[in-house]
Amino acid sequence: MIMATEWVQTSCGMCYVGCGVRVQLEDGVALSVEGDPNHPQNRGNMCAKGKAGLMNLYNPHRVKSPLKRTNPEKGLHVEPGWQKISWEEALSTIAAKLKAIRDNPKQLYIQGWEITGDSHLWLHAFASAFGTPHYSSNGSPTCGKVIHPVEFFAAGGFHQQPDLHYCNYCILVG
Fold it and tell me: Does pTM surpass 0.90?
């Protein structure tokens, strides 16, 4: 049996930098990833996170469907009792919770994580349409983005800390 092998040029999605990479596919399955020597940004070099990207893709513990917490008790060593639910049930549950706080939208805090660099645009649009000023879309602590020092000196920091004590509902995106 002959396997169809090809190399596809793309960008690494493990941080904001978006280094050029080549992914080896065999019958549509990613087998390996390497830096693209023709990419002007990284010139074939890759960091450890980028090289480990396939581990995220094939991680057997990766969450692939919505989960619902069944144990209302929370704590460091408390089993949350996650139960797999359908996308329809997840979206219906979220819609019902949003409708319940629609009259007081400032109860909602929305947190997004910048992976593509543009999530702040749709998070802002959703927050504005819903009527809450409480949203944030910032980077992961491992992104290595060079803008962080500028943000620190201009705004006093780059890790925004929501006041979850006064928040009834929090939507985490990403």
Answer: no
